[in-house]
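User: Last request for today: this protein with glutamine, please.
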Amino acid sequence: MSTESPLIGSFSASPAQQLDGARIGVVTFPGTLDDRDAARAVTLGGGTAVSLWHGDESLHGVDAVILPGGFSYGDYLRAGALARFAPVMNTLIKEAGAQQTSSSPLPVLGICNGFQMLTEAHLLPGSMINNDHLKFICKDQVLRVENTSTAWTAQFTADELIAVPMKNQEGQYVTSAQELEQIETEGRVVFRYVGDDPNGSRNRIAGVTNERGNVVGLMPHPEHAVEAGYGPDDATGMRNGTDGLTVFTSVVSSLAGGQQ
Ligand SMILES: NC(=O)CC[C@H](N)C(=O)O
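Assistant: Here's the final one, the structure of the complex with glutamine:
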């Protein structure tokens, strides 16, 4: 008989082609919206999505973790501010943070509300505040992929332009001038907004990574651009709305040693 919590299991999205060994945890918090889409993106990317719950103290041996988008705990106080104290986040901070000395640190991706949690948890630098125009935005957004050395971006080409949806209220990325300079100098901007500035983020930063490169946060939503005909048109018009899928195939490939 299984000793696992009934909350732990695989999402039921139908896998296209799963590779053994890439078990990617997708965490659900009260108020999470995009866990099912993130799980589906994982399976379409060739991995196995494992459902994790905010109250879990264990990551159940997953190979990577996604913190999906939504309004965890109703975005009360600040988006991500309460989620940061969930039991699963305490464990994540220990297993993915700066004090972790493993030679293959746990890959973590925070998407939108997940990015907000990662800054609140100080796994990533900077903070997220209200969009400069103080309105919720919901639009397709072109991004430039500027760092392809993370597990989540390894299969993009340098400076590749991609189009994925974005939808948020607290999406303006801010840092101190000193931290901003350090992030830029160290090449830790992973995604940058192209075209109209959607929210006033410093240096048009849409996504960053930590010093070790295992933790990545981004504001727009690659998991909503993984199936032809459903995501926005690609920046080059070539991929019919599937630009986000490379995030998920990248991590699956990286976990398999970059062989796929
Ligand atoms: N898409 C998301 O994750 C949503 C929203 C986010 N909590 C916000 O800033 O509005």
